[in-house]
Amino acid sequence: MFFKRFMQNNTRPAVKKVSQLIDNSSHKQKKYISLMVVPSYSTGKTRTLRVPRSLFHGAIVSMLVITAIVAGFYLRSSYFQRMAYDLDMSLTQTESRYYEFRAYAEQIQDNLIGAAAQIYEELNETEYRAQSALDEKAQQHQTELEIILDQIEEIERQIREFDEDLQTIIDGLSTRGDVIPPVATLVAQLEESQAEIRKLSLIHNPPEDEIEVATVGFLAMGGAVNDVPILHCTVQEHLRLLTNELSVQRKLMDCLESHRALMDAYLRNFPTLWPVRGTISSYFGWRGNPFGGRGSEWHSGVDIPARTGTPIHAAGGGTVVFSGWTNGYGNTIIIDHGGDITTLYAHNSRNLVAVGQDIARGDIIAYVGSTGRTTGAHVHFEVLINDVAVNPIPFMQEYYS
């Protein structure tokens, strides 16, 4: 098209066609290819280049090869660009994911740090609570220990008091045994019973399996009960020992009370008092006639001179079985003391008790007088066993205080 327009506008003389210039029949020309170079400006000369056909074809092939190579390189470059782009996108995505993962990891780390701080705080709080619980438990144990020690001290005090009371009572009963013969027998039985009960004491008789432990005084107040060493033991064991000892002391006291119940009649009623203070003027047994007559007479009691109106005390507790006038004895009182023992008080100026009245040891029952057959103011005192008069001297052991 360009060529056609060029030829129409060109004022130059007509030129022969290339086909006219080439002799197709010429074999020489078949080996070449003519190329016409037409300049783009009007004053230029048209040139014809004759290129060998083989060179032309080689150039075409080379151009095709080069084009293929370039195209290959282009395609490969495009492939690599696409790969680079994909890799860049992948890297971008990876980087984005990395930052997301990093942010997530930082968040997880923050959460873990927060959780760790919370756990640490909870652990500290738990440890504080545990320590507080331990302190509270320790304080509770200390309080319980103090309570136990107070119990131990109280039990020890009771044991000491029990032991002292027991000893005082037994000593008193033993002394009364010298005055009241039946009491001596009961005191001997009591001491045997007490000895049997004391064998139950773990303090005085520790088990053989505990003897191997060194014996030391472990009581709260120091030393040991009744100066008896106690086995080294824990507070609980110590409390057990003292509780056992307290139980033994209570059994001892119960045993004492049961024996005292047997002795009570003798302790309350057995006639051991002098009816009045004074000197015996006439003893039990045969004596001369106090009125100056010949021969002797049987005197069934003792005479104790005293001023008229002096109070007469009951030699022991009991029940009045007679209170009235008796020939020869005047105003007379008879008291039944139990155990077939009675006492008689005669020549009284006035009787103060009536039949059936209960009398305690030392009560004032009458006043001294000289009623009946008598030579002066005095008390005629008799002791009768099964209504048979016996010598009252062994019974007259003490004065009313």
Give the biggest sheet: 9 strands, antiparallel
Coarse structural class? alpha+beta
Number of helices: 5
- Span of the ends, CA to CA: 177 Å
Element-level helix/strand string: HHEEHHHEEEEEEEEEEE
Please provide the count of β strands.
Answer: 13
How does this structure look, described?
The structure is a single chain. By secondary structure, this protein is α+β, with helices and mostly antiparallel strands. Among the domains are: 151-269; 285-395, Glucose Permease (Domain IIA). It has 5 helices and 13 strands. The strands form 3 sheets. Strands 5, 6, 7, 8, 9, 10, 11, 12 and 13 form a 9-stranded antiparallel beta sheet that branches. Strands 1-2 form a two-stranded antiparallel ribbon. Helix 3 packs antiparallel against helix 4 (181-198) and helix 4 runs antiparallel to helix 5. The longest helix is centred in the N-terminal third of the chain and has 127 residues, at 53-179. It starts with a helix and ends in an 11-residue tail after the last strand.
